[in-house]
Amino acid sequence: MKDPKATGPQSCEDCPIRHRAVCARCETDELEKLEDIKYYRTFEAGQTVIWAGDPMDFVGSVVSGIATLTQTMEDGRRQMVGLLLPSDFVGRPGRDGAAYDVVATTDLVMCCFRKKPFEKMMMETPHIAQRLLEMTLDELDAAREWMLILGRKTAREKIASLLSIIARRDATLQLAGMRGPLVFDLPLTREAMSDYLGLTLETVSRQMSALKRDGVIELEGKRHVTIPDLPRLLEEAGDDADGGMMA
Amino acid sequence: MKDPKATGPQSCEDCPIRHRAVCARCETDELEKLEDIKYYRTFEAGQTVIWAGDPMDFVGSVVSGIATLTQTMEDGRRQMVGLLLPSDFVGRPGRDGAAYDVVATTDLVMCCFRKKPFEKMMMETPHIAQRLLEMTLDELDAAREWMLILGRKTAREKIASLLSIIARRDATLQLAGMRGPLVFDLPLTREAMSDYLGLTLETVSRQMSALKRDGVIELEGKRHVTIPDLPRLLEEAGDDADGGMMA
DNA sequence: AATTGACTTTGACCCAGATCAAGCGCGGCA
DNA sequence: TGCCGCGCTTGATCTGGGTCAAAGTCAATT
Mind telling me which SMART domains this protein's record contains (chains A, B) (predicted)? Predict the structure, then answer.
């Protein structure tokens, strides 16, 4: 993985509540009263942060690394319903149990707040709710984009859409409007990709091979991807205008 | 359609901002200053409220009737990404264009607020953002439930899930925990159902027939549905625990 | 009562993607 | 050095749902 700090907040240490994930505007003098309700947790790649249904007495945000939200049916069918990147928020004020499985797909650092005091603070500090509203609306847009992908796109378009989403996000690391090829490491296994896209892992593999064969992407090893021609990829994704949106 | 007031707010006239869609807690003395920024719009079944991309200078909430949010690809493939019921909120503070097509599927009354003043009021009245946050989180949950349906369920399960969602919502009209059969009218055409579920209209029709043949549902005409055994329907939907969630 | 047109159902056939089943590549480890 | 084991690829075959086509229902209109 790339250094996640590059896209995430510069540091969660500087100011916990100023942390972009929670609020971009609050004042530093709120720092002290937070010290006792905030803590950090780290996870290794593959570890589960919390299982759906388990009691969850905290909310938090991703400092570095990547986590996934997935839903599972009784018979084992799984659907990923969210991808958490640095600065993304986890947990719902006012809800006691986790709604989804949260799994670290890379090494992960989270900045957590005990839920009750956080809720109290949210009541007293208006812009926290305003900031959370903005973030939640972004996630909702991402979820809806995803619904179009799941409901109406072909396997090839789905793969291209996923790569666009990741490329787009990583592109912020590079010069905006740059011309050259885009290069990144896939943060997901083929299986995680299939859970994301509502496909089987075999279909994901086949379509990756097909996109490679057709020159839309280049692969070095299994994870390292080069996009020589982003507009071409976006066209393959089925939405020429842009590459989908991300939470 | 049923009288939508039964599930929606009792009246939008009583107090525009106390309107459940916006805020359940504000004080009546905010009424006056709202009179000049709020207005009503009515639409007939089938009318388009706004097209994706069009400038949108208002936000609002559904007073009565049902509307859909849909996304369309250049080649005409469509995916419904939201179902708006009475008290649901439309529009995003801080965004200028509509992100989705909004279409009235029944006769529709909306309570609208000019966007700029609404945003200003939201900044000044903390619980409005808090209320909108709650609602948006509910919508996000619904969208994620929907993603599981789109990505992993079979056609039969999709239909059963949709019927469960509608039945569940309409069930609030009836005594909670009631035993008897559930009866309601589908607010959607077969085509709208297919747009919702990522299927073709033919498949929707076939699966409706199959569920009828198997005694899971009873049909009188094309729209009037009876659910003789709700647990059976939920089982067919693939999630025994409950019938999915709704925005 | 017949016509029209929107919506729905049903049938026949086909294909994208699932399923089942080998193998491959490569890092970790004895 | 070789042998796991895990993630990935590739092949062969099957099938759920799509596609194309026709006919049925029903309310509104003439």
Answer: cNMP (SM00100), HTH_CRP (SM00419)
Residues near A244 by beta carbon (within 8 Å), at least 6 away in sequence: A145, A146, A149, A161, A164, A165, A168, A237
Q: What distance in Å separates the CA atoms of residue A146 and residue A140, rounded to the nearest whole number?
A: 10
Architecture in CATH of A4-147:
Sandwich (2.60)
Architecture of domain B153-237: Orthogonal Bundle (1.10)
Per the CB < 8 Å rule, is B79 touching A129?
no
Flag if B141 and A99 touch (Cβ within 8 Å). yes
The two tokens of residue A231 are 């507009």
Tell me the C-alpha distance between A135 and A133, whole Å: 5
Interface predicted TM-score (ipTM) of this complex, two decimals: 0.88
The domain segmentation of chain A, as residue ranges, is 4-147, 153-237
CB neighbours of residue B134 within 10 Å: 17
**Token pair of B30, please?**
């905010």
- The pLDDT tens digits for A130-170 are 888 989 999 999 999 999 999 999 999 999 999 999 988 76
Task: Specify the DSSP class assigned to residue A67.
Answer: E
Average pLDDT over residues B67-81: 95
CB distance A6 to A63 below 8 Å = no
Lookup result for tokens 């009235």: B104
Distance CA A168, CA A246 (A): 9
Partners of A78 on chain B (C-beta within 8 Å) are: 152
